[in-house]
Amino acid sequence: MLKIENLHARVEDKSILKGINLEVNPGEVHAIMGPNGSGKSTLASVIAGKEDYEVTKGKIIFNNEDIDDLAAEERAHKGIFLSFQYPVEIPGVSVTNFMKTAINETRKAQGLEEMPAKDLLKLIRDKSELLEIDRKFLSRSLNDGFSGGEKKRNEIFQMAMLEPQLAILDETDSGLDIDALRIVANGVNKLKSKDNAVIVITHYQRLLDYIVPDFVHVLHNGRIVKSGGKELAHELEEKGYDWVKEGVNA
Amino acid sequence: MSKYTEDDLREELKTKEYEYGFYTDIASDTLPAGLNEDIVRAISLKKGEPEWMTDWRLEAFRAWEKMTEPEWANVKYKKPDFQAISYYSAPNSKPKYDSLDEVDPELLDTFNKLGISLDEQKKLAGVAMDVVVDSVSVATTFKKTLSEKGIIFCSISEAIKEHPELVKKYIGTVVPKKDNFYAALNSAVFSDGSFCYIPKGVKCPMELSTYFRINQAGTGQFERTLVIADEGSYVSYLEGCTAPSRDENQLHAAVVELIALDDAEIKYSTVQNWFPGDSKGKGGVYNFVTKRGLCEKNAKISWTQVETGSAITWKYPSCVLKGDNSVGEFYSIAVTNNFQQADTGTKMVHLGKNTKSTIISKGISAGKSQNSYRGLVKISPNADNARNFSQCDSLLMGNECGAHTFPYIEAKNKSAKIEHEATTSKIGEDQIFYCNQRGIDTEKAIALIVNGFSKDVLNKLPMEFAVEAQKLLEISLEGSVG
After folding, report:
1. Looking at residue B25, what is its pLDDT?
2. Domain map (residue ranges) of chain A
3. β-bridge partners, B348
4. Looking at this predicted complex, what is its ipTM?
5. The whole model's pTM is what?
């Protein structure tokens, strides 16, 4: 589904990704871990198509298509979803209105009619029930005055509504207490299927107790320096990132 | 309008040029350029006015001659040459139509381009149209339904002839002819406009709507509107403007007077979309408007405006809260793009006891434009327990535009409660990327953010106007981020 080959990227003059290789297949959960500044969030932004980043070498192939020339919204239309580390606030735009716009813009790009209001309401009802979200929440302005936990739940709600093929969760666990973490993780688990894939970006192992990965990759200084199964996360938790850094430097 | 879809919008967004920039070629009857007493008399004569009206105009003209153009507003422009303007232009035949079939097809085409054809309007339940094309009313609809309730809704020229007692009693009582430079000019040369009277205790059953148009090259547009809501009555009045594109600047100096007698309520909504000039700042309408309403006891006046057009806007819809317990409201969205300049706001003058006013102003600046809010809240010594709440929010797009807020407060009564809040924000790249990532392109994302920012005011507009207003917001900001 996703194939990243020798990806190099920079922001302004600073090169951040220095040769990433990664392959993600349908039904898989990949965790990307690494110390601060290793390039985790940059990787997420580059896959999603943020303009500030320039790909200098390598390719990102999504469903057999090189997506380097596609704008962020076009990548979204093809089924790439990014759950933001810091979701932005848009005052005066309700969650419902935002979702309606996002869904209809995507449908339009796919040559479909707008979703009838009746279907949209049903979808909202189903997904909010699935994720145990109070529907009052949906008429509030997008992320405006939301708590950290509410913002992250809202990200997962949007993921549920848009049903992406590939979801990238960028530090979804940051700023969450243990209850909020469990709710968010449960949501992600409910949305998982054999046809979609998830990339979980995290600094800590604790989220991976709830969203269990098939593969764990360790990112350091713009490269994946170690890959393994879920036990790698535990090993990192015990030994710290210095263990990996030493391994690279040695 | 109700069937307006996003596809329609997308089509419109593709059009870079001002899309209402067309010109209807209807043979016109135009006075020579220049202004003197003879011209004022000629206007009055052409309109077949009684002597008292002619004298009233002449008094205004003499006052105007001694006045100078105000310079305090935060706008820069080349002053119009008032002797180079023609002060009267009217379609040379003035038929009254029984059906649309009789209307000049070219005129109908104009309406079609505006998306507000009479045909469509007729179907729009509850909207009566008094269409003003170049100063003279050429079509009126729904008059019959209104007249059954005793409501008078006609052109001001007609009102001067048919209802002189009402016009004579109220015209110039809220905006005196010597009020300011542009009001005096308007009083001397006003060409036409609308008149509305709602009798005691009558709730007007439909939204009253007038579309103003500037149509003749080089003619100023001097509209005069007078709305009188008698005791205990209610009316909602809609005013919308579009204008064809022109190279030279066009002067527009309207006067609107509202009178809400005891227990009456007037809602006055405007969507203003005069030609703003091109992207290089060439051309565009100068819009110098005086709008004011008077509230008697327990009366209420709400001004709602969406200002997207004009090269220069100078406009302060105001409320004089004379009666005890009267209420004034001002809800405004002002959008400036490219080289547009707007200096707009309101005056709330509290004279009566327990009077209340609310001001919500949303300014959106893009391109190299300048957008100023200027407001006055005045509490007079006798206005016990007066209350005001003002909120002025500015949204900036890009680094070359400006937003300014000039709130003035004069409180001469210690019991007054006045609150003022102001915010300034910018559309961030993070917001845009967030929307992009959800599949919403940049143009649509800006529209979404701007609509969210303006929601408090858009909500105050009648439904069908709100749709049009949203559309205008989106079109006026097209291409402003990139």
Report:
1. 46
2. 2-249
3. B319, B377
4. 0.95
5. 0.80
